[in-house]
Structure formats: structure tokens, C-alpha cells
Specification:
Layout: H1 2-17, E1 27-29, H2 34-40, E2 44-50, E3 53-58, H3 64-67, E4 70-72, H4 75-81, E5 86-88, E6 96-98, H5 99-103, H6 108-119, H7 129-144, E7 148-154, E8 157-164, E9 169-179, H8 190-206, E10 214-221, H9 229-240, E11 247-253, E12 263-268, H10 273-286, E13 290-295, H11 303-306, E14 312-317, H12 338-357
Parallel strand pairs: 9-10, 9-11, 11-14, 12-13
Antiparallel strand pairs: 1-3, 1-4, 2-3, 5-6, 7-8, 8-10, 12-14
Helix pairs in contact: 6-8, 6-12, 8-12, 10-12
The structure holds zinc ion.
Length: 359
């Protein structure tokens, strides 16, 4: 008796609120009429809006009059749109990710605090106590965010890996890196490369709750200024253990803090030109940055990976207008453009997620 009653009750309820509420569906708003917009706004949550494309999700049950202003997106459309917005992961139906909800979480104050802290050391020259302290502090931060920490040392020079295994495809790795050491013993470079380290830490913070399909690996390298020591050692080690092929994308951030024209240089070798254009395309979608692609990599940690055929990119401040205090004592935190550094963070966060969702 009871089962039949509760069944009827549910059916009644269902009929009462209408079959219109489908919480996980995506809809395109197909009206811009002020009256319609006013009517539907209380029922929807915006997922993305640019130009005529307005994608929403239902917050609660909506009357048919509201539904008449919405068009359900098909699975294919969702996949088609994912580049700019959304994706549906078959194995984790409930898991929907919006790249923009992550890029929007970038906090410039965090980047500034970390740059100022890293630049406040006497030096971060490799082998110094301060260098070790800066690395240990970063390790504690990343561990606190839930990443698995590992120190990779070559002789006395230790670099840091912070990783979270992928839930679906742990054998594929996306790696973000930047060097923590500074050149010379008289100062601790703010732009080179406290800026890259600080952006890496902010990316790790923003992505700490992201449900990654592939493995995400943050690599704070050391000894870059004395011959790419940490990155060369790690690339060689991965080669020896046949793990290089697991790496699907490397993004290196070196000097991402000084700029006035909003231009980021994307550097790689000619065989990865298409990858550089893919990143430039993401920049146009998710940041205010303009891009310049340079083919012919040199002078930083992406090189040991490129030389071993790994798809690697460098994102660096526009070199034509680079920091006039490059490798000098005047490379201080007061000259850093944190808005710009924040846009670099957004760019590389969008790249991690887009690459992660790439089939
Ligand atoms: Zn550097």
C-alpha cells in the first residue's frame, strides 16, 4: 500500500512542478527581449555570455513561459563549445568544468605577496641558505594545497615536484614549471624569476580543487641561472626511465612580471608551432593578452624538454620591451605589473584545463 502511495505522490509532485527542471542541462538563451530576460533571470545561472552567445543552467524549476526562451544544447554542441566554455566528461557525468570559473579565481594579491616575499631574500642564488628556504616554503605551500611533494636533487641543487594524479588518465602528464633561483648573490630577482614562481603557486592554488583527468605536475626548478641544471637533470632522468613520452604539454614561465604593452611572447621550436598557436588562441579567449610567437627556443628550462622532443612552450614577457633591470640589482618587486602576471596565470590555467580535457 505504502509504495503505491509514495509512487503516486512522487508522480503528482512531478506533474505539479512540470518536467521542466533539468538541473544539469545546458541551455542557450534565444531571446534578448528585456521582458524575457527579466522573466528568466531568477531561474538561470549564467555559464558563459559573450556577444549573442548566452549559455545558462537552470537554478530551479521554471515555468514553460521561461523555457520558451531557452534552447537545450545537444551533447555534440556541448563538446563543440568546450573550447570556449564547457565540456561533458562521459566517465564523470556530474563533472562539468568551466574554464572561466577557474581563470576568474586568479587573485592578484596572492601573486604580489609571493613576489614580494621571494624578492625580500638577500639572494636566491643556487646553493645559498635563502635559496633552500624559499624552496622549502614553496614545498610547504604546495603540500598544504594537497599536492604530493618530491624533491629532485642533482648534486647539491634541489628542485621541487608537486603533483596530483589524474583521475581518468594518470599516465598523461601536464607540467607547469618556473625557476626559483636568482642570478648573482647580491639580490633576489623579482621579475627573474620570483614572478614565474609566484604565478605557478597561484595556478596551483586555483587548480587545487579541479578534478583533473590527466596528471598535473608543478615543477619548481633550481639552478636555471647556472646552466639549466634542475630541468636538464629531470629531463634526462625521465628519458632514462622512459617517462618522457607521458608528458603531453610543458609550459615554462620565466620573467612574466614586467610589461606595459600587454604582449606575451610564446616561444618554442618550429615543430611545435601549432601548439604555440593553440595557446595564442586560448589567450584571445580567456585573457586580455596579445601574443607573439617565436620559433627558436633558447635560454631557459623548456629547452632540455624541447631537445628531447617533448611539446614545450615558454611564456615570457615581450622581449623587445623586457625589464631594463634584467639580471640587475634593480630587478625589484615595485616594478612588477601584477595585472599582467595575473593574465599569464589565467592563460596557463586555461591551457592546463583545455589540455586536460583534450581526448
Ligand atoms: Zn630566468
Amino acid at each position: 500500500m505504502n509504495n503505491l502511495f509514495s509512487l503516486l505522490l512522487c508522480a503528482g509532485l512531478f506533474l505539479m512542478v512540470g518536467s521542466s527542471y533539468r538541473g544539469n542541462d545546458l541551455f542557450q538563451v534565444i531571446s534578448s527581449h528585456p521582458h524575457d530576460v527579466e522573466e528568466l533571470s531568477p531561474y538561470v545561472e549564467t555559464v558563459h555570455q559573450s556577444g549573442r552567445l548566452w549559455i545558462v543552467q537552470l537554478k530551479k524549476n521554471a515555468p514553460d513561459s521561461v523555457l520558451s526562451h531557452l534552447r537545450t544544447l545537444s551533447g555534440r554542441e556541448k563538446n563543440y563549445l568546450y573550447e570556449g566554455l564547457y565540456v561533458t566528461n562521459k566517465s564523470r557525468k556530474a563533472n562539468r568544468v568551466s574554464i572561466q570559473s577557474f581563470t576568474r579565481a586568479v587573485d592578484l594579491q596572492n601573486i604580489q605577496t609571493d613576489v614580494e616575499e621571494l624578492a625580500a631574500y638577500e639572494t636566491r642564488y643556487v646553493g645559498t641558505l635563502e635559496n633552500q628556504q624559499a624552496l622549502e616554503k614553496s614545498a610547504a605551500r604546495l603540500q598544504g594545497m594537497g599536492y604530493k611533494i618530491q624533491e629532485i636533487c642533482y648534486r647539491e641543487i634541489c628542485s621541487l615536484i608537486a603533483e596530483r594524479k589524474g583521475l581518468v588518465n594518470p599516465e598523461s602528464v601536464i607540467m607547469i614549471m618556473g625557476h626559483i633561483d636568482s642570478v648573482g648573490e647580491a639580490f633576489a630577482g623579482a621579475d627573474d624569476n620570483a614572478s614565474g614562481t609566484a604565478v605557478l603557486l597561484e595556478m596551483a592554488r586555483v587548480l587545487k580543487d579541479y578534478q583533473n583527468q590527466k596528471t598535473i605536475r608543478f615543477f619548481i626548478t633550481n639552478g636555471e641561472e647556472v646552466g639549466l641544471v634542475g630541468s636538464t637533470h629531470y629531463a634526462r632522468r625521465l628519458q632514462d626511465t622512459q617517462e618522457l613520452k607521458k608528458i603531453k604539454l610543458v609550459i615554462n614561465m620565466d620573467m612574466v612580471g614586467y610589461n606595459s604593452n600587454g604582449l606575451v611572447e610564446i616561444e618554442t621550436n618550429p615543430e611545435f608551432d601549432e601548439l604555440a598557436r593553440w595557446l595564442a588562441d586560448l589567450a584571445s579567449k580567456f585573457t586580455s593578452l596579445k601574443t607573439k610567437i617565436t620559433l627558436g627556443a633558447w635560454g631557459s628550462d623548456h629547452l632540455p624538454f624541447l631537445n628531447r622532443g617533448v611539446p614545450a612552450l615558454l611564456t615570457i614577457e615581450d622581449w623587445d620591451t623586457k625589464n631594463p633591470c634584467y639580471h640587475q640589482e634593480c630587478d625589484t618587486a615595485d616594478k612588477i605589473n601584477y595585472e599582467y602576471a595575473g593574465e599569464i596565470a589565467k592563460l596557463n590555467i586555461s591551457a592546463v584545463i583545455a589540455k586536460d580535457l583534450d581526448q
